[in-house]
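Case study 2.
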Amino acid sequence: MALQSPIAGLKTITGYILPEEQAVQPNKDDGLESEDEEEEGQPEFLDMKEMNSVSSGGNMFKSLVPTSKEVSILVGKKTYKVEGRFPLCDPWWEVTCTIRLGRLKAFVKGYPFYRLRTHLKSEGRSLLSLFLTACKAQADHVKMFMDWLPTDRRVELVNVLDVLQEFEDSSLEHEAVAQQLKSSVNCSVVWTHVKAASLYPGIMKYLPTLLPGQYLDIIKRARIEDIPETSAMDEDPQNEQRKTNVLSKLEELINTNNVWKLGFNYIMFKELHLIRCEAKLEAFKLCDLFSAIPLLQRNALILYAELKKHCRVTGSTYITQEMLVDKIFSETGADGAWAALHFLVTQGVLMKESTKVALRNLLKYEKGIAECLTGLVQGDPWKIHLDVKEVLREAQIKRLRAKACEKHNATMKSKDDANTSASAAENSTAVFEQLGIDLDQPGTSSMVHNGETPSCDDSENTTLTIKEENLTSDSDSDLDIDPSTIELDCDQVRAAEMMCANPVTVISGKGGCGKTTVVSLVFKAAMEQQTSDLEEVQKACEDFQNDSHGSSNGLALDVHEEKNHSEKSISNEKSVEVLLTAPTGRAASLLTKRTGFTAYTMHQVLWSFMTVDKDRSGNPQDWKFSKVRVLVVDEGSLVSVQILHSILSMLTKHAQLQKFIILGDVRQLPSIEPGNTLYDLFEGLRRVRWAIEMRTNHRAESELIVRNAGLISEMGKKKYYKPLDFDATIDMTNPSAVPSDKRFIFIKISSDNFSFDLQEAILFLLKEAPGLKDHILSQFVAFRRKDCELINELCCRHYSNHTTKTAKKTFNFQVGDKVCCTKNGYVTDYDKKETSLADIRASHNRAESQQDDQKKEKKEKKERLCNGEIFFIKDDVTKSVENEKNKMVRQLTLDDKSDRQVTCNYKELQRECKLRHSWARTIHTFQGSEAETIVYILGDSPAQNWQHVYTAVTRGQKRVYVVGTEYDLEGAIRKRITPRNTRLCGFVNTKVGQQDPLTTSASTQRQAETTLNHSFGHSQSTPVASQTPIRPQMLSSTRPSCARNLYTDKNGEGDQTSNISLQDDMAFSQAYSWSPMDSCDEAGRVQNENMTELSNHVDDALLATLSSSPNESSRGSKRTIAEDIYSTPSKLPKQTASEESPMVSSRLNLLSLSSPDIKSSRQLFQDDTHSHRGQP
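Prediction:
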């Protein structure tokens, strides 16, 4: 039957899927979806409430949109070849679908409706045979059964088990065959589908359209109906009842006026315990259910869809009620809109506060983040006592020594080469003369000049005079560097102090300002300090153990127990205490390289919590992140409110979190999901001075890039434009060679024929531009997908000498291609399956953990590939499958050029991660990553604004090309940005920022006097550096630490560190009154530029003054920042060991005669009373 659709060009047909093998043709595009038909992706990870619901028996269905297939449908006597997303393609289904006729075949609009074929006539026997074959029954058994079945017997598929029972009862020789056939039917998926169709016809008809992703997983639940009650004895009866009743409840909703409930995730979660099951407004209209819904609920669906669209498009987390009503006024009318709003608020779907209306989950995420931060502020404080200036200064000295040695080695090599060249030149002068070559400029001069160390600025009036004998390769510590000549970045010092003192710290700054460097230095120093403290305590205990006066009263036993406990903790998988995370895999990889800590993606942390075993209360068991005390989040502008809320919630509840640090650049593009996390936290914590902007660039090669980025930000916020500071401009109407020493280049193209000129510009750059010969260190970025597709095609031909797609329009991946994952997924790593145990043992260097690693490998067989990770195809092999004839499997080996390789099945890789060529990426997808050379294709899209331009150019570390027109560049910078209406900043300011700093400081000081802690607690699993020892288990922060208080005066009273910190905060509040998102005057910008320029030359200046006196060094300094503005509390003098202990040990004051807490100190002599604290 074929009906003409009301929409022009569309036709609705109802027919049977033909059983021929050629009728079902998968779209051989690797199961990929075309961009115009791709379903809107759902969030991949659940929030904390949803995770807890899954643990307690909630229903979560796997979401997988069916791939496009071509089938043949018989309608009357006419056969249609139709391409569409058919979840079921078996010949016993009757389908109804709306199609658009094409020249060779038809295309389905939406999804088909299904109904099980009944009243089978002549074709019944053939369908029954096909059905048993689809159940994977043995061919000879099927033949025996079909031979027994009478030719005139009509069998419906729903009655097949009854007929098989008759077959079994007919003869003893049929009994075994019949049982095998029944077993095959009962265990098959196709029988589950048939059974679901007979019991729940409404689900089979409408759910493919209403819930296309979860449809197949939902109908599999029909198998649960057959589970005997005795098999669920160990299960919660209430949870089992939920599972078995979910299909019947869905069927009831569809067949009543309550089908509208499927359109609201919260109602489905509350009433049916279904997680992330929500039908779209368009789906109701496509399956003709919308008109049957009552008017109030129809209007509610319209309002709900409009609010979700508003949040998705603008990035806001709320909307005013008046604006929301105005948006749907034309469809519902004023009364209908207000009634729908009231209805959804009453149902709990929306939250309304004053005039603000928000989706329930978004409001919960923002409030939850503020509450988690409040818990950190009000919880047990952890102050890390470090002299941060000394830590930063030592790091700077090490870097200067390395730089000086590198320059010295280069100079010596140049001299050796020069001498060799001079000797060769003398021997070959006659030859050159015979050839007529002019030798006015000897080669020796050129070679020495090219190898010389660049001289400092003439204004410095200093020279680098380091004795050569002090620059030996085996010892660079002989360099005499005066620490007083080391001038530190005041922003870095202040940021380090914030991290040590505050429970929450927000650090913003452009790339190259040293955000991650400061984090790594602070926590490496803290770990080294607590390791040293523990070793000294243990040494003191051993001294007393060997002393005749203290060896027989329990101390030896205590030390032995701690040693055994320490060894036991090391033998197990080391838990993580300082957790470094990033929102993307590429950002996490960069964070690992820069800090030395093992960084994880935030999704990895969430996934580990979702998959770890939990007890009945939902608490994770043996979770590797259960000991986390510090959470560091890099690239905070990319973090969504849901992800941050989930991470903070699980770490505050199921770990030992005491510090939270988020890094990023508030000027960059925010997350594509609703919310403005980094900016809101920065602004919300400015009042208490827990947020800082780091302004000085420390990358000399990116100085021009950073300066232009600041200019883009300033012009964008002030809505004006002036030409950027390009150091080269190439006009494509008359292109010239690009100088190799230029860093910020404008490739100017014509606007008359943009696409053609863009292609010519790309080809020109690929052939001529410095920095693009190596596609490993370079990257193209663009705003639009179509520009990326063009660039990828050109780059594929240039770098790999082939096209991105084959003649059949399938993706063409070959060895050497640059590719990336476009969604998060888990794949089987075939190399790791064989070598992972050896790699794990080698990396962890502890044989005791072999059993734990084996158990872990059995449980986790998948390798996670993250969205945005870039790889290069190293190998492409097609192998035959063992034990399966004529079956081949294609495997790709991916190499990220950072010591990571993954060999995986190509089909699995495409299904899970959607591999794409990645010479060009969009700005959003490359955000969080960097490359030495960036080519930014500006494009002519009017949707681009200054944040896109800013984010694109700041991806470059050494060189940036901007390709476009001056008109488009000006338009993007001047374009007004639609503000994101969010509430996180207000919640943080109310819950955290409004607390009285004096009260907080005093409370912190009182707790610090009794609970001062220098250590990290339990064992740390994150590798910091190869020389860092594995630390035994330390003490909890809620008890007195074994570490000595370095800030104790002669009277034994704690130093007023909190008050000093507060006074410093007050002084800092006057110096740091600038906000990165506020308008800044020109003078301030110039000053910042001067500071940046000064920082870029400070290394050479310091190297030049190493042999100078301190007075000369101070006169030659270019920094003019007042000391009283950026000063930090000076380190109090360290007490000598003799003042603390008669045994000349700095830890013996922890050894008490009788201790009420075995964790806080060592008991020298037993006390039978234990009635009071013994005095040492």
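The domain at 360-406+487-538+576-611+623-700 is CATH 3.40.50.300 (Rossmann fold).
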